[in-house]
Amino acid sequence: MTSIEEQPKIKLGDYIVIQRQKYTKLQKFGNLDATATLGKELLELKGLLDQPYGATFRMCPKEELGKSHRGRQRLHALELCNELEMRNIREVLGISQSGDDNRNIKDDGDSQALKSEDIEQLRDECKESTKIIEKIVENSKTFHSKTEYSQEKYLKKKEKKYFEFVQIRQPTIRLITEMYYRQDAEKVMGIRVDTLSQMISYSGVSAFGNYLLYDSGSNGLLPAAFLNSIGADTEATMVHMHPGNIPQKQALLALNLPDEQTNRCISVNIYSVLREFYQGTEETNSEIVVAEPSTKKQKLNEVEDNGSETTKEERQSEPATKTTLQKWQIENRRAVNLMHNKFDSLVIASKEHPANLVKELLPFVKPSRPVVIFSLCKEVLMELYVELKTSSKVTNLHLTSNWLRMYQILPNRTHPEVNMNANSGYLLTGYTLG
After folding, report:
1. Inter-residue contact 236 to 230 (CB < 8 Å)
2. Rounded to the nearest 5°, which phi and psi values hold at 297?
3. Partner of 162 for a Cys bridge, out of 129, 135, 293, 358, CB 3.0 to 4.6 A?
4. Bridge partner residues of 241 (DSSP)
5. Domain coordinates of the chain in residue numbers?
């Protein structure tokens, strides 16, 4: 296991994961003036530069920024801590007394002697959350009458609110997948980490070969996962087809992959690239000049070598020998070349019915290669299963579903989590026939 000192360093331009207890947030460290918001707290990020990933930082209050809809907001500097030891807040506070049951405790809103203004003053004066919690416990009229279990819940709730440490973690596929799924599963089509791992495994993606992925809205999670599996400094290339004008790449950017690796992910609009594959373009035999991302409109008059100017009409009469292509056109041509050579696997994750997608993309896959189709709807995959079985284009077909149930494991109170989503979509897998 590598030590903190051996971890990669945080650099400007990196995406980072800020973790405060169980809460995680993806943030770009774009410049030294960058800040991150955690609830009511605003964090200065400049103290992270050149520090190792995995390090723990203390939130040091600097100034109050005034009130917002969330309450009083504070600005914090981040101070590196050598080590954050796991602590039992109950033992730290030396609490030993507890009640037998909670039947006589009334929630009348009058059990806490400290007012909100007093607690805010404590937060300004005390840097350690244990000191704040200690004062709150001392001024609670009902705390020592609660059962030990109720006391632990109360202490954890307060520590979560006043916890003054954050950990900076390096983004990984597993971390990003769990974060996206927990925050809003719909944005990643309900793809959970166990389903994602099966998609990668069934697809056979490796450091060699060419792979075709269609993704209609996973926030960049699928191209990020497959490109991560391909690895850096390898021979493999992936064509990422999508239905929109701009590909979703947030998760891909968050991995901070090297340029040579990201350049092997060719993102193209599916309709545009299929049209070019079947119809071609007029500029196929012309010389290509790659346009800058933000080119300005060229002047109508250009100066020749002898200093004279040609008019617009004169230039139009000259034979055109160069064609300026936008980036999406270059990507289309790269993808078309790979489509002619065919792919080593096909992965489709679509919100729409995948039947037409399979029909269009299956001819671009080599024989005896894996096909993986994901959908949130079981019925559409059942229809596709019958269709592929009848056509004899794909063999060894299997329709599967992952069912995962998370458990809270604690002494004498192990039980399933109350809020959970057991289903994470369905997978139809098979292999192409020649």
Report:
1. yes
2. -65, 125
3. 129
4. 214, 268
5. 4-84, 89-162, 173-281+325-432
Q: Looking at residue 123, what is its pLDDT?
A: 72
Transcribe 359-414 into DSSP letters: HHHGGGB-TT-EEEEEES-HHHHHHHHHHHHHHTSEEEEEEEEEE---EE--TT--
Minimal CA–CA distance to 35: which of 69, 59, 71, 51?
Answer: 59
Q: Where are the beta strands (DSSP E) in 170-304?
A: 210-215, 237-242, 265-269, 287-290, 302-303
Q: Which of 266, 249, 287 is nearest to 333 (CA)?
A: 266
Tokens of 252: 């891909």
User: What's the mean pLDDT when you consider all of the chain?
Assistant: 82
DSSP class of residue 31 equals S
State the pLDDT at residue 127.
66
Average pLDDT over residues 415-428: 82
Contacts of 153 (CB under 8 A, 6+ apart): none
How many Å apart are CA 394 and CA 97, to the nearest integer? Answer: 68
The pLDDT of residue 284: 47
The CATH number of 173-281+325-432 is 3.40.50.150
Other CB atoms within 10 A of residue 243 CB: 16
